[in-house]
TrEMBL record, chains A, B:
<feature type="binding site">
    <location>
        <position position="367"/>
    </location>
    <ligand>
        <name>substrate</name>
    </ligand>
</feature>
<dbReference type="GO" id="GO:0046872">
    <property type="term" value="F:metal ion binding"/>
</dbReference>
<keyword id="KW-0378">Hydrolase</keyword>
<comment type="pathway">
    <text>Amino-acid degradation; L-phenylalanine degradation; acetoacetate and fumarate from L-phenylalanine: step 6/6.</text>
</comment>
<feature type="region of interest" description="Disordered">
    <location>
        <begin position="172"/>
        <end position="194"/>
    </location>
</feature>
<dbReference type="GO" id="GO:1902000">
    <property type="term" value="P:homogentisate catabolic process"/>
</dbReference>
<dbReference type="Pfam" id="PF01557">
    <property type="entry name" value="FAA_hydrolase"/>
</dbReference>
<feature type="binding site">
    <location>
        <position position="240"/>
    </location>
    <ligand>
        <name>Ca(2+)</name>
    </ligand>
</feature>
<feature type="domain" description="Fumarylacetoacetase-like C-terminal">
    <location>
        <begin position="140"/>
        <end position="430"/>
    </location>
</feature>
<dbReference type="Pfam" id="PF09298">
    <property type="entry name" value="FAA_hydrolase_N"/>
</dbReference>
<dbReference type="GO" id="GO:0006572">
    <property type="term" value="P:L-tyrosine catabolic process"/>
</dbReference>
<dbReference type="InterPro" id="IPR036462">
    <property type="entry name" value="Fumarylacetoacetase_N_sf"/>
</dbReference>
<feature type="binding site">
    <location>
        <position position="134"/>
    </location>
    <ligand>
        <name>Ca(2+)</name>
    </ligand>
</feature>
<feature type="binding site">
    <location>
        <position position="206"/>
    </location>
    <ligand>
        <name>Ca(2+)</name>
    </ligand>
</feature>
<feature type="binding site">
    <location>
        <position position="150"/>
    </location>
    <ligand>
        <name>substrate</name>
    </ligand>
</feature>
<dbReference type="InterPro" id="IPR036663">
    <property type="entry name" value="Fumarylacetoacetase_C_sf"/>
</dbReference>
<feature type="binding site">
    <location>
        <position position="251"/>
    </location>
    <ligand>
        <name>substrate</name>
    </ligand>
</feature>
């Protein structure tokens, strides 16, 4: 399925595009001013309007059924169709938008009706999210955070057996660009025995990979790890905004709650497994002494190619940077290679108890930090809990995020002989507490 | 709004009915064989078909708008309307079904079309659940469970300040009568350092009050405690089935996950605040030395009348009892008085960070145990973690639930001068692991 770098589109902005070359073709939901949300595909600086293309009769067979399932401003029904429909749609899009497309003229004649500029378009959540689950599979992050609380024993005994996860809040997942209102809540000030109430003073980001669930399973049935791919619709970037002071006070014994539920931001484009195919790799060998996964979490093919090499980046743009016309400053450069468990292992684990997954459910990977400075996926790790502020190019310092700060997540896949693939941005700007 | 015991219905089975006298009028969604789910009201042994009554022209004004919002097999739109619509509907139902109804003849002439026997009807979830949140406000339960893990320090320091809660799984909430498939998962056998995989061996129930959320709030805005009533649509019974062995191994550091997400059962009828009005009471005084609630959790009216006196009961029916025609045996008799926080406090807390609540969201109270033997809301507490098995009338013993066991939750409100109000049952029978 993977396409070489030489493949080109007649949509000029797609060729060499950092995020959305012809090889990517991520799906999403967009709207033009005054019209209802509809499905589209990012191509260079434009969006190919799937519903308009359907009306033009550009699809037939399985690809047509796939596009029909994307209608209504939510991709859930498309996700539910599974991989065959997705692959058929991709094949047809490669024909339609490829350099030698016989339909180029017909499409170009429709102009902005079929290919509006992405800049004009508002992007929406791609699906109605039934349930959102946040995992904790970035082992470097788990170690970094564990060290802050338990210096001698950063990883708990279950970590290398159980893909740790917890239920998140689905109602507050929002697409990139949505404002991030600083939450209020209870915190226990240092040295005090009684909590205070007020705006969060330790607001943080978390760099995560998001996973959109495809076909669901019946309640009471499990998804075997070898079948997991059929149940994964695609990928995005996810910022699990975190109020560290609220979290520290509330999270025992049942886990994070209001410290996370005020907003979770995702990049709006669903990048498919097909687009990411060239960037698959073997799951990194477990360090000596680590246990092997239990049988329900072990699949040879998954071990050999279930991991991804996706570069992940976090940038900070402060009010001062905007005023001085400075570019956003990088805080983190990490990679999905730091996942201790593969995405297939997450699907198998989540459903092993018979829990029903549904098309449009969202998983977060957990924060994906690397082991070294510059690779930490949250300010909690970068500043060691606020003890070592970051110095910015403007001369400003940050322990945690301030009002007006904007966090930008990006992802990039690179490999010799293949076009680079990106995810688009996941942005969020902090606005003051109410 | 509350109606005295003397109020009678011309529906004969309603008068003196333990659960559904005319004073209750809970809403739900039911279906007859071969027809689509629709809204109805429980009255004695029958269901008043709201959609059929709407077609007959029995409603007008606000009550009509309320019934229109119940159409489509989900009460979400009705919940979103808030209390005025609900109160108008109740007033009209009291007229229609009251002893001196001028429309009795018209309704009776329709026979089973308007009043099918509940026994013929399948009951469904009353709403599409966006998010499900489980709280932990049964302080006796928190103390009993805390003692098992931390004998000297059963309650964590945050317990009396924070209404502790966590996100649950919405996709596996099911109505009473749905089978409970024993989950499989990882557990750490006593004395071992490596986990095993297999069927849960410590399957348990948890007796909870369920709360259906009414009108939602915009993201970023909080619901003031004084406004919480407008955001509560009604109440049900909730069994938070728990796999104790899976829970013990997985829950650190992010809370319960697969140990709870295999199923959560609810009673299907939505009992309204109006029906429960006579059973409101002052929030029990906090023991000397306990802190006062923070201002966002404090409201004088809520302190004076925000708690409920609802008797809660758990019964166990084993295979042997069924074979011997023995009645189900009571395991627990408790009361909602054991909630350390009121329902209004839960709503205010959940939204204080700007988290968006939506009509049809579901809250669980947490297990509502009393302080004494016979009042414990889970087998974990009754058997002290399996150390002291319960002896049953059949001569059987139980540490935890076995395949074939059925758990039945019931609730009853009693007060001199008022009709008794019930919730109907919340049942679930264990079927073997796959």
């Amino acid at each position: 399925m993977s396409q070489p770098a030489t493949l080109r589109s007649w949509v000029a902005s797609a060729n060499g595009h950092a995020d959305f070359p012809l090889q990517n073709l991520p799906l999403g939901v967009f709207s033009l001013p005054g019209s209802a949300p509809r499905s589209g595909v990012a191509i260079g600086e434009q969006i190919f309007d799937l519903e308009a293309a359907l009306e033009l009769g550009l699809f037939e067979g399985q690809a047509k059924a796939a596009v029909e399932a994307t209608r209504g401003g939510q991709l859930n029904a498309f996700f539910e169709l599974g991989s065959a429909a997705r692959v058929a749609l991709r094949a047809r899009l490669l024909e339609l938008l490829g350099e030698s497309s016989s339909l180029r003229g017909k499409i170009e004649a429709q102009g902005a009706k079929l290919l509006p500029l992405a800049a004009d378009c508002q992007l929406h959540l791609p699906a109605r999210i039934g349930d959102y689950t946040d995992f904790y599979v970035g082992i470097e992050h788990a170690q970094n955070v564990g060290k802050l609380f338990r210096p001698d024993n950063p990883l708990l005994p279950n970590y290398k057996y159980v893909p740790i996860g917890y239920h998140g809040r689905a109602s507050t997942v929002r697409p990139s660009g949505s404002e991030v209102r600083r939450p209020k809540g209870q915190t226990l000030p240092a040295g005090q025995s009684e909590p205070s109430f007020g705006p969060c003073a330790r607001l943080d980001y978390e760099l995560e990979l998001g996973i959109w669930i495809g076909r669901g399973n019946a309640m009471g049935e499990s998804i075997a790890i070898g079948d997991a791919a059929e149940h994964i619709a695609g990928f995005c970037l996810l910022n699990d905004w975190s109020a560290r002071d609220i979290q520290a006070w509330e999270y025992q014994p049942l886990g994070p709650f209001l410290s996370k539920s005020f907003i979770t931001s995702v990049s709006p484009w669903v990048v498919t497994a097909e687009a990411l195919e060239p960037f698959r790799q073997a799951q990194p060998a477990r360090p000596q002494g680590d246990p092997q996964p239990l049988p329900y979490l072990f699949d040879t093919r998954d071990q050999q190619g279930g991991a991804f090499d996706i570069e992940l980046e976090v940038l900070l743009l402060t009010e001062a940077m905007r005023e001085q016309n400075l570019p956003a400053q990088r805080l983190t450069l990490s990679n999905t290679r730091h996942m201790y468990w593969t995405v297939a292992q997450l699907v198998a684990h989540h459903s092993v108890n018979g829990c029903q997954l549904q098309a449009g459910d969202l998983f977060g990977s957990g924060t994906l930090s690397g082991p070294e400075a510059g690779q930490f996926g949250s300010l909690l790790e970068i500043t060691e809990g606020g003890k070592k502020p970051v110095e910015l190019a403007t001369g400003e310092v940050r322990k945690f995020l301030e009002d007006g700060d904007e966090i930008i997540l990006r992802a990039r896949c690179r490999r010799e002989g293949f076009a680079s693939i990106g995810f688009g941005e996941c942005r969020g700007k902090i606005v003051p507490a109410r």
